[in-house]
Specification:
Number of helices: 16
Radius of gyration: 21 Å
Oligomer: single chain
Shape: globular
Distance between the termini: 58 Å
Helix content: 55-70%
Number of strands: 2
Strand order of the largest sheet: 1-2
């Protein structure tokens, strides 16, 4: 078909429109995450969270254009499946006028580039909920750049590019390991170096309205997050779409019930976190299981993740917004459950001991790698930069002390 005088062989207009919608839905999740986290922290530190997450949009986009996309989806430079050639697609080379037979045969390669960019943007911001009120924004930006190069780009290549885990048969449909496990276990690595906050507030979330807005945007966007992985408006997309919704619902109900049993009252935040746990857990499996299995996975997620968030509290890790218990455990759990619930008729993957073993190995490797690399990065930054915020800055509020912008008190 001709588009503006440029020939894209094999492009299907409906699939392009479908992928544009899916890409926008994934993009809206980053502001959604920002509002969700912002509403859960203290008012005087909330704008700092927003800035850190929104900045990732600009920083990661530039990195993606100038080497990042190539690192992930370029031809492997080692022969061992470790990293793609950063020159192959540098500065949109071989992307703008192309259709790639490996990554979306019926959409322009540029559309695939943009869809995958949205995943790269949102990954490390998930971790900001772990290290709330600990580091300066400059340190966060430097860490973001180093982490993307050393953790995200290699891990995404291993699994979604022509990497060694992909060659082994490891699968992750929409990022349970690539995104959730890598970010959450990196958060643990950061905590290992940074320790507890200097001031731990016992106040309730300052703005539940923002939490609701952020949660709604996350729930809304997650349908594109998972369904876009089909790369076409095909029948499997309907299954992935359904799997996303039923897993979120099951996670929400199970978590809400467990919270009610413990607290003796219904919690609005519990219901949202339960839904997100269900979503994080179904994400890697969403394109390989049937809807009933997705419902079961969501329910399992609501149960396992509810108790998983108690582990950091008992061990005094100070994971402020329970990122490890929800996203790390959820992403890991959903990844290995592919080996339990995968249905060959949906996407060619069979459940069984063999697939379960591959999934367990891959998810464990990414978790350990992300943790260790983050520990190393933070140890270096902690010695070379004025990385940590002071107790005095926390008492004033990070928004005032770091940004000189803040929400006025009523």
């Amino acid at each position: 078909c001709w588009e503006g005088g440029i020939m894209f062989q094999g492009v299907v207009h409906g699939n392009v429109a479908f992928m544009i919608i899916a890409t926008v839905l994934v993009f809206i999740m980053t502001p959604g995450l920002a509002f969700f986290y912002c509403g859960l922290v203290e008012k005087k530190n909330s704008l700092t969270i927003l800035v850190e997450i929104f900045l990732s949009i600009g920083v990661v986009t530039i990195m993606w254009i100038f080497g990042g996309f190539s690192f992930v989806f370029g031809k492997d430079i080692s022969g061992l499946g470790l990293l793609g050639d950063p020159r192959e697609y540098f500065a949109f080379k071989h992307i703008v006028f192309a259709v790639n037979s490996q990554y979306g045969l019926t959409i322009p390669f540029l559309m695939f580039f943009m869809y995958q960019l949205m995943f790269a943007i949102i990954t490390l911001p998930l971790m900001t909920g772990t290290i709330v009120n600990r580091i300066r924004i400059k340190g966060w930006i430097i860490f973001l750049i180093i982490w993307m190069v050393t953790v995200y780009f290699p891990v995404a290549h291993w699994i979604w590019g022509d990497g060694f885990l992909h060659r082994m048969g490891f699968v992750d449909f929409a990022g349970g390991t690539v995104i959730h496990v890598s970010a959450a276990f990196s958060g643990l690595g950061a905590l290992f170096v940074l320790g507890k906050r200097k001031i731990i507030s016992k106040k309730a979330p300052f703005n539940l309205g923002w939490v609701a807005l952020g949660g709604a945007l996350l729930l809304f966007g997650w349908f594109g997050f998972n369904t876009g992985g089909t790369l076409s408006a095909a029948g499997v997309a309907a299954i992935v779409f359904t799997n996303t919704g039923v897993a979120a619902s099951a996670g929400m109900v199970v978590w809400t019930y467990l919270g009610y049993r413990e607290k003796k009252h219904i919690s609005f935040v519990d219901s949202l976190v339960g839904a997100i746990a269900g979503l994080a857990t179904i994400t890697p499996a969403s394109g390989y299981v049937n809807p009933l299995s997705a419902f079961i996975i969501g329910g399992i997620a609501g149960f396992i993740c509810f108790y998983a968030i108690k582990i950091p509290h008992k061990l005094e890790w100070d994971d402020v917004l329970d990122v490890w218990g929800v996203h790390g455990v959820g992403g890991f759990l959903g990844t290995i459950l592919i080996g339990v619930f995968a249905n060959h008729l949906i996407n060619g993957i069979d459940s069984g001991i063999h697939q379960f073993s591959i999934q367990l190995l891959g998810a464990s490797l990414v978790a350990v790698y992300s943790f260790i690399l983050t520990v190393i990065i933070f140890k270096i930054l902690d010695k070379s930069l004025d990385l940590r915020v002071t107790k005095e800055e926390l008492e004033v509020g990070l928004d005032k002390s770091l940004l000189n912008e803040y929400f006025e008190e009523n």
